[in-house]
UniProtKB/TrEMBL annotation:
<keyword id="KW-0732">Signal</keyword>
<feature type="signal peptide">
    <location>
        <begin position="1"/>
        <end position="32"/>
    </location>
</feature>
<protein>
    <recommendedName>
        <fullName>Sporulation protein</fullName>
    </recommendedName>
</protein>
Length: 137
C-alpha cells in the first residue's frame, strides 16, 4: 500500500514538474509588455535580419533593377569626381562599358588617374557588372 502511494505521489510530482517547466520556458508574450515595461518587437523574416525594414534602400531579394536605373545610379556615383563633364554607359549583359567625358582643363597625364578612380567607384558600388572604362575629351 505504501509503495502504491509513493508511486502515485512520484507520478504527480513528475507531472507537476513537467507542467512547471513547460509554462516557465514559454515566455512568448507576443508583443505584450512584460513586467519591466519593455515591449518585445520583431522584424519580418527577410533574410537580412530586419535590415531592409530599418533602411529601405538596401537591395533585397525582391528588387528588380533595370539597365536604365543602374545607368542613372552609375552616373550619380561618379558625378562628384572632379574632372568629369559627362558619362555614356552601355550594357551588354553583365558588362558595363563606361565612357567618361573629361573636362578640357584636365591635364593629359591626369586622365588615367581619373579613369581608375571612376572605375574603382563603379566596381565597388556595382559588383554585378564588369566595368570597362575609357575616356574622351
Amino acid at each position: 500500500m505504501l509503495k502504491k502511494l509513493m508511486l502515485f505521489a512520484c507520478g504527480w510530482l513528475a507531472v507537476v514538474l513537467v507542467l512547471t517547466l513547460l509554462t516557465g520556458c514559454g515566455s512568448g508574450n507576443n508583443g505584450a509588455t512584460n513586467t519591466n515595461g519593455v515591449k518585445t518587437q520583431s522584424y519580418k523574416a527577410d533574410g537580412y535580419l530586419g535590415m531592409t525594414n530599418t533602411y529601405p534602400k538596401i537591395p533585397g531579394p525582391h528588387m528588380a533593377s533595370t539597365y536604365s536605373n543602374d545607368a542613372n545610379a552609375m552616373r550619380q556615383a561618379i558625378a562628384d569626381l572632379p574632372g568629369i563633364k559627362g558619362t555614356s554607359i552601355t550594357f551588354n549583359g553583365s558588362e558595363a562599358y563606361v565612357t567618361i567625358k573629361v573636362d578640357s582643363t584636365l591635364n593629359q597625364n591626369e586622365v588615367p588617374t581619373l579613369e581608375r578612380q571612376a572605375a574603382s567607384v563603379l566596381r565597388f558600388n556595382f559588383p554585378r557588372y564588369t566595368i570597362h572604362m575609357k575616356s574622351s575629351k
